[in-house]
């Protein structure tokens, strides 16, 4: 777990934790992703968990396409209650149509 002073990053936690596996591999989530993307189905590439301290600056604006490619859908699921004051995820409508890497 986090020690409260630094961000801890864990990748593919679903492979070792049944609670995360049930969420990440949920048929309902897969169907929703496929429907939004216009695909016949969807598969899990990876999950990432960030344990962040309750202080610090914002994450800079970015596009996941620069890291993951155009044929990947990313999904942010908050594990704690959040408000915009806490620094929740924001998006720019239509930004998926912008050219180039962001």
- Biggest sheet, spatial arrangement of strands: 1-2
Helical content (DSSP H or I, runs of 4+):
10-25%
Question: What are the low-pLDDT stretches, counting only 5+ consecutive residues below 50?
Answer: none
Rg, rounded, reads 15 Å
The strand count comes to 2
Q: Which structural class do the helices and strands define?
A: alpha+beta
Report the order of strands and helices: EHHEH
- Tally the helices: 3
Gross morphology is: globular
How many independent structural domains? Answer: 1
Major sheet:
2 strands, antiparallel
The end-to-end distance, rounded to whole angstroms, is: 31 Å
Summarize model confidence as the mean pLDDT. 83
Question: What this model shows, in words?
Answer:
The chain has 102 residues and is of the alpha+beta class. The protein has one domain. The chain contains 3 helices and 2 strands. It has helices at residues 18-24, 27-37, 65-68, and strands at residues 8-11, 48-51. A two-stranded antiparallel sheet has the order 1-2. It is globular, with a radius of gyration of 15 Å.
Draw up the topology in text.
Elements: E1 8-11, H1 18-24, H2 27-37, E2 48-51, H3 65-68
Antiparallel strand pairs: 1-2
Pfam family, one: PhyH
GO molecular function, one term: oxidoreductase activity
Cofactor: Fe cation
Keywords:
oxidoreductase activity; globular; alpha+beta; metal ion binding; 102 residues; single chain; Phytanoyl-CoA dioxygenase; Phytyl_CoA_dOase-like; two-stranded antiparallel sheet; 8% strand; 22% helix; 3 helices
């Amino acid at each position: 777990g986090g020690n409260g002073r630094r961000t801890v990053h864990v990748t593919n936690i679903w492979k070792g934790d049944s609670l995360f596996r049930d969420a990440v591999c949920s048929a309902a989530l897969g169907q929703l992703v496929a429907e939004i993307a216009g695909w016949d189905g969807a598969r899990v590439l990876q999950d990432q968990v960030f344990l962040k301290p309750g202080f610090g600056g914002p994450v800079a604006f970015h596009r996941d396409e620069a890291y993951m490619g155009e044929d990947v859908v990313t999904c942010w699921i908050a594990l704690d209650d959040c408000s915009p004051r806490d620094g929740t995820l924001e998006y720019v409508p239509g930004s998926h149509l912008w050219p180039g890497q962001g």
